[in-house]
Write a structure and sequence with these properties.
Blueprint lengths: L4 H13 L4 E3 L4 E3 L1 H28 L4 E7 L4 H15 L3 E7 L2 H10 L4 E6 L6 E16 L21 E3 L4 H12 L10 E3 L2 H9 L5 E4 H8 L5 E4 L7 E9 L5 H15 L5 E2 L2
Parallel strand pairs: 3-4, 3-5, 7-8
Antiparallel strand pairs: 1-2, 5-11, 6-9, 6-10, 6-11, 6-12
Helix pairs in contact: 3-8
Keywords: Activator, DNA-binding, Transcription, Transcription regulation
Protein name: Probable hydrogen peroxide-inducible genes activator
Organism: Wenjunlia tyrosinilytica
Length: 279
């Protein structure tokens, strides 16, 4: 709807409902209490209409049409190529719309109906969300090339207690997972890290510059450490710290059978990666 037509449409709706929905001034427009209540009900109606359209689309042809796909930044660069090849090869009629956001924003988008399916780290502990497990992967310690721990393959987790550990900034689930590993290792919580970065590429460059060490998931190693000859890695002894990756959908969504089939196909494509597939 064009902007000039909107006030007339709102006025017509108010006349039909017999109540004022907005307060208008020369500077702004505010919802009345009735407007707030009806807006919430309208949102529920729109979500129901969306589910109806999804149901009709699923009946017509599974895994066709638009799929609004959310993915976290610490997964997107390393797994999206596999996802995109799968869609191209197996689901050519599926229009994938990719949204890279942090976990909290993705879950909000899923709950509001803005997104259909998420690729992210779990567990989520989010009500109304069903997880479709894909795989687990080890964390690896990334160090400067001449670091005393460089190249070791039997690290105990306890080494994390005293290292200059570099982490992502607040809001990234990978930061929280790394902190959980550090807590399990007995690291003091008061000073978990000396600095932080907005992305893994920056984080790795800080390590290459000698500012500390960091933890990377194994799927990120080839991309992130291959850019510099000043980096080395060290692996933890079993059981190594790990993270789990899954697809997530709204519980009871009309396309749940489609999404389960998509998860199964994606698991098969992920087997060549350094991960442990979860059924």
């Amino acid at each position: 709807m064009s902007r000039p037509a909107l006030p007339g449409a709102v006025a017509a709706l108010e006349e039909t409902l017999g109540t004022q929905l907005v307060e208008r001034t020369t500077r702004k427009v505010l919802l009345t209490s009735a407007g707030i209540r009806l807006a919430a009900r309208a949102q529920a109606v729109l979500e129901s209409v969306g589910e109806l359209m999804d149901e009709a689309e699923a009946v017509r042809a599974p895994l066709t049409g638009v799929l609004r796909f959310g993915v976290i930044p610490t997964v997107a660069p390393y797994l999206l190529p596999t996802v995109l090849r799968l869609v191209h090869d197996r689901y050519p009629e599926l229009e994938l719309q990719v949204h890279e956001e942090q976990t909290a924003s993705l879950l909000d988008g899923l709950g509001q109906g803005r997104l259909d399916l998420l690729l992210l780290a779990v567990p989520l502990h989010a009500p109304g969300v069903t997880e479709l497990p894909l795989f687990s992967e080890d964390f690896v310690l990334v160090t400067p090339r001449m670091h005393p721990l460089a190249g070791r393959g039997d690290l105990p987790r306890e080494v994390l207690r005293d290292l200059d550990l570099l982490l992502l900034e607040e809001g990234h689930c990978l930061r929280d997972q790394a902190l959980d590993v550090c807590r399990e290792a007995g690291r003091a919580l008061e000073a978990p890290a000396t600095t932080s970065a907005a992305g893994l590429s920056t984080l790795v460059q800080l390590v290459a510059g000698g500012l500390g060490v960091t933890l990377l998931p194994r799927t990120a190693l080839k991309v992130e450490t291959g850019r510099s000859g000043r980096l080395s890695t060290a692996h933890f002894r079993d059981p190594a710290p790990e993270r789990r990756i899954a697809l997530a959908m709204r519980s009871g969504v009309a396309r749940q059978e489609e999404f389960a089939a998509f998860a199964g196909a994606l698991r098969e494509r992920l087997r060549p990666l350094p991960v442990r597939i979860e059924e």
